[in-house]
Design brief:
heterodimer; A: alpha+beta; Rossmann fold; OB fold (Dihydrolipoamide Acetyltransferase, E2P); 2 domains; six-stranded antiparallel sheet; 8 helices; 20 strands; B: mainly alpha; MetI-like fold; 12 helices; 75% helix; globular
Chain lengths: 376, 275
């Protein structure tokens, strides 16, 4: 178990700037999940930590050691790949013990380490099989076992669950969480699946275009996104956004008028940000779970998705048009708990509580976030 | 299930064609084997008939001129050269396939160009070089000559195989503590079986049958390989044709055996399935 520090790490591929000055401190035993859209640099960053990519500038340390220019085999990191990357010509046992064999560990020690890891991952009965005889889930366990056997300082995971089916994925998610507690190891995990990020991470790192947008615990990021990007990226279904204008600034109170909303909305400016100018364009954010049925905004039901434990409504509110919407039609998404019967084309009245609203300026920076308190 | 008549006719035609072609190819080989059992007279009086008596006399005569030694020489030369070819071409192709440098690409083009040079074009300077290096009449010497001939083609073959080799396996090996040499020998080579098998068969057949260089560079009787050794059965005035055919039959056996052993990987590799 060791800490990992990235200090102003940059990566260029020719003229393309893939990683733009990333600094991050991962505490010993932390489970860091890096999320972001495709091409945001999360996998590149992980590969740079592993030593599979060189760093153009900046510094990286693991524990006390400067690893910036060390080769992968000297870094003390283990990586679990998306496609498992098991050696097809070796048995599961040899796959898991390969690193120790390369390091010339005594045979008895290798056997013990492999068998312990196999027991932890419940794959003991597969030890003498070849990888091709295993299912996807079993292969992924072996890949994780191969990492565990080495007892590395830092575990790296590159979208390890994305090739598994949904049921297996949620099962493995739970197991990885359990494994992290059991091993008490430092782990860096890359995914584009926000459920994985929200459920497993001690802290989430949101990356966008090669830069860190925000670092924090899952609920910190969900409740208090620093930017429009983070607010839009975390949460499923996605947050509803509406463009509006500041029509009044009185101290900390901002009044926003949104075309299509019957009345302007007043929000309280966050303490650490400057008030926007009068008449400037802003973007209002409403989480789907904050949309309520009953209120003063008429909307017709364009689509109903009944998921059993919740009902998703896609609402056409006429002039009140959702930007960057989940559906491209500008529909508002509402997430209602439990089951409801709605018919397509019905008109409902909706509303949202003003203390559940987010406000961002044109550059995407946070202006107002709700004062949400997480129940203990 | 019944087959449509038209399809069956096409099938018959295709099988007929393949059958005729196979007969055409196999006929000389069958003739060689049958001729080995005939007497010297019979070969000329009844060239296409079956042997009157099945006797192994000609095999004994062939073995008597030192076929055992020639075969040993051929085995040493073929094994040695194929081993060097696989090792050197594998390393070269891997280095080129993994490099992004322009110079390496240029080197690859040079290797391809080397493959295009006909053997006979360089035979005189090659002879001079080999004798200057004191390598004539040396099995060790001709091994290097054969290796040099075989490396360009095998490098091209390995190069395309390595381009498709899954990178994650190499990356996993590097993270597992392997330095580049270990990645190559412990992960890449063991997983290149089909490519190695096809390269080995191609080169083994070529070297086993190679005549011109062997004739030029190996003149001492105890150094000769099979193709030139068998020539000793041809005297100045008479030729012992049944013994020549017996010698050739013996010479053909090992290569057929290798092909039978490796043919699965060979065919898989040629069909692009050896991954």
């Amino acid at each position: 178990m060791a800490d990992l520090t990235l200090d102003a790490v940059e990566k260029y591929y020719g003229a393309y700037h893939a990683i733009k000055g990333v600094s991050l401190k991962v505490e010993p035993g932390e489970f860091i999940v890096m999320v972001g859209p495709s091409g945001c640099g999360k996998s590149t960053l992980l590969r740079a930590i592993a030593g599979l990519e060189t760093i153009s500038s900046g510094k990286m340390t693991i524990g006390e050691r400067d690893m910036t220019h060390e080769p992968p085999w000297d870094r003390g990191v283990a990586m679990v790949f998306q496609n498992y990357a098991l050696y097809p010509h070796m048995s599961v046992r040899d796959n898991m013990g390969f690193a120790l064999k390369v390091a010339r560990c005594p045979k008895a020690e290798i056997r013990e380490a492999v068998e312990n890891a196999a027991k932890t991952l419940r794959i003991t009965e597969h030890l003498d099989k070849k990888p091709r005889a295993l299912s996807g889930g079993q292969k992924q366990r072996v890949a994780i076992g191969r990492a565990i056997t080495r007892a590395p300082d830092v575990f790296l995971f590159d979208e390890p669950l994305s090739n598994l089916d949904a049921a297996l994925r949620s099962q493995m998610r739970v197991e990885l969480g359990r494994l992290h507690k059991q091993l008490d190891a430092t782990m860096v995990y890359v995914t584009h699946d926000q459920t994985e990020a929200m459920t497993m991470a001690s802290r989430i790192v949101v990356l966008n275009e090669g830069k860190i947008e925000q670092v924090g615990t899952p609920l910190e990021l969900y409740n208090h996104p620093e930017s429009l990007f983070v607010a839009g990226f975390l949460g499923s279904p996605k947050m509803n956004f509406f463009d509006g204008k500041i029509v009044d600034v009185a101290g900390k109170a901002l009044t926003v008028a949104v075309p299509g909303m019957p009345t302007p909305i007043t929000l309280t400016l966050d303490d650490d940000v400057q008030a926007p100018a009068f008449d400037s364009t802003v973007r209002l954010g409403v989480r789907p779970e904050a949309v309520r049925v009953g209120g003063d905004i008429p909307a017709s039901i364009a689509l109903v998705e009944s998921l059993g434990n919740q009902t998703l409504l896609y609402l056409d509110a006429g002039a009140l048009n959702c930007v960057e919407a989940e559906s491209s039609d500008g529909f508002i998404t509402a997430q209602l708990p439990s089951q409801h019967r709605y018919t397509l084309g019905d008109t409902v009245q909706i509303s949202w509580s003003p203390d559940m609203l987010y406000l961002f300026d044109t550059s995407g920076r946070r202006l107002c976030t709700p004062r949400l308190a997480v129940a203990k | 299930m019944t087959t449509a008549p038209r399809f069956r006719a096409v099938q018959l035609l295709l099988y007929g064609g393949v059958g005729l072609w196979s007969a055409f190819v196999l006929m000389p080989i069958a003739w060689m084997v049958f001729a080995a059992f005939k007497t010297r007279r019979e070969i000329f009086t009844d060239p296409l008939g079956m042997p009157q008596t099945w006797t192994f006399d000609s095999f004994e005569r062939a073995w008597g001129v030192g076929l055992g030694q020639f075969m040993f020489n051929s085995i040493v030369v073929t094994t040695g050269a194929v081993f060097i070819i696989i090792l050197v071409s594998g390393l070269a192709a891997y280095a080129i396939a993994r490099s992004t440098s322009m110079w390496m690409k240029l080197l690859y083009l040079l290797i391809v160009a080397g493959f295009a040079v006909p053997n006979t074009a360089v035979i005189v300077p090659l002879y001079q070089m080999v004798t200057a290096a004191n390598f004539s009449n040396s099995l060790f010497g001709i091994i290097w000559v054969y290796a040099a001939y075989g490396i360009p083609f095998t490098t091209i073959l390995f190069f395309s195989f390595f381009l498709d080799f899954p990178r994650e396996l190499e990356e996993a090996a590097r993270l597992d503590g392997c330095r580049p040499w270990a990645v190559f020998f412990r992960v890449v080579m063991p997983l290149s079986g089909p490519a190695i098998a096809s390269a080995a068969i191609f080169q083994a057949v070529f070297i086993w049958n190679e005549f011109l260089l062997a004739l030029l560079l190996l003149t001492q009787p105890d150094r000769k390989t099979l193709p030139v050794g068998i020539l000793q059965l041809q005297g100045e005035f008479t030729s012992d044709w049944p013994a020549v055919m017996a010698g050739l039959s013996i010479a053909t056996m090992p290569i057929i055996l290798i092909f039978l052993l490796l043919q699965r990987s060979f065919v898989r590799s040629l069909a692009g399935l050896g991954k």
